[in-house]
Amino acid sequence: MNENIPDLPLFPWWKKTNSHIALGFFLIVFSVIWYAIDLGIAFPPSFEGIKVVTIRQGESAHEVATAFLREGLIRQRFDFLLYLKLAGKDKKIKPGNYSFRESISVLDIVEHITSGAAERTIRIQEGWTNFAIAVYLEREGVVLKEDFIKAASGTEGYLFPDTYRIFQNTSAETLIDLFEKTFNQKIEPLRADIERQNRSLHEIVIMASLIEKESSGEEDRAIISGILWKRLGTKIPLQVDATLSYLTGKASNELTEADLAIDSKYNTYKYAGLPHGPIGNPGLSSMRAALYPQSSPYLFYLHGSDGKAYYAQTFDEHVANKIKYLK
């Protein structure tokens, strides 16, 4: 046997054919992947109005993709997740509320939710009035106070307090849309119970705005809610200092007898019933407290110098509490 004979394959064309098949398969797969990406990038789905996507701390890229798909902002999760991975940004997604007024590509969406350069975080506090929000936004260099106040006309109580991620050049109108859309999303689970109680959403928002200003924490929201609803039911004026503070800009301890006599539908000392409108933008806790008040024997309450709430069943007890706790 000649050991110098080379070991030639019986079918020399097989390896060549295999390589052609593998190459063809790779090209087909690559074309499908590229088409899927290109479809999402070049032809984002269209929509009307404003879309808001909330990304919570710790959510995975897959959860984020699902949220964007649910809102109709992307065509499919695949191209979104693939681009995130290829761009090395799947771990750089920033939590917040993101608003979209028009269709944008997957590339732009990814840039929007991962880039810190073109975005910023704003935090709207529970109970802030529209004016307070305007002052804050101007101080933070977001929009001019006057522009926001003009755009926010008629929205007091309906601009949801939360943490938002926005573009640096976001307009006042876009902010209003974002805050209102977030309010509607947050309140949606409560709408059925509001209807069952034969109350209007506006009544609940007004009451929640009072509770937001009058309560000192979670523990007294529901009790104060029960007291205020009881006073309404018995035609007793609410006598809520916060409504006068809303009118005058004064703190509760700065109010005078003249302030108590102001002729305004917001003056709950002069007029029985709910004030004319909300006196701030309440958070979800106060909305729930307004909807689910806690029954108690009390008709009066005050917050002492120590910040705690003190309750009374009669006016005499209430006066005694004032002497004892308002030092």
What does this protein structure show overall?
- It is a single chain.
- With 327 residues, the protein is mainly α.
- Among the domains are: 51-114, Dna Ligase, domain 1 (2-Layer Sandwich); 198-325, no CATH class.
- The protein has 14 helices and 6 strands.
- Strand 5 (300-303) and strand 6 form a beta hairpin.
- The longest helix is centred in the N-terminal third of the chain and has 30 residues, at 13-42.
Please write out the topology.
Blueprint: H1 13-42, E1 51-55, H2 61-70, H3 77-86, E2 96-100, H4 106-114, E3 119-123, H5 130-139, H6 145-151, E4 163-167, H7 172-187, H8 191-196, H9 201-214, H10 218-233, H11 241-248, H12 257-260, H13 284-291, E5 300-303, E6 309-312, H14 315-325
Helix pairs in contact: 1-3, 2-3, 5-6, 9-10, 9-13, 10-13
Key attributes of the depicted protein:
14 helices; Dna Ligase, domain 1; elongated; two-stranded antiparallel ribbon; mainly alpha; 6 strands; 327 residues
In short:
By secondary structure, this protein is mostly helical. Helix content is 49%, strand content 9%. The strands form three sheets. Strands 1-2 form a two-stranded antiparallel ribbon. Strands 3-4 form a two-stranded antiparallel sheet.
| Gap between N and C termini | 116 Å
This entry's quaternary arrangement is single chain
Regions with little confidence, pLDDT below 50 for 5+ residues: none
| Structural class category | mainly alpha
Shape call: elongated
Instruction: Give the mean pLDDT.
Output: 85
Using the CA coordinates, give the radius of gyration. Answer: 30 Å
Order of helices and strands: HEHHEHEHHEHHHHHHHEEH
Number of helical segments with 4 or more residues: 14
Measured as a percent range, the helix fraction is 40-55%
Count every beta strand, where a strand is a DSSP E run of 2 or more residues: 6
* Order of strands in the sheet with most strands: 1-2
Strand content: 5-15%
**Strand count, sense and closure of the main sheet?**
2 strands, antiparallel
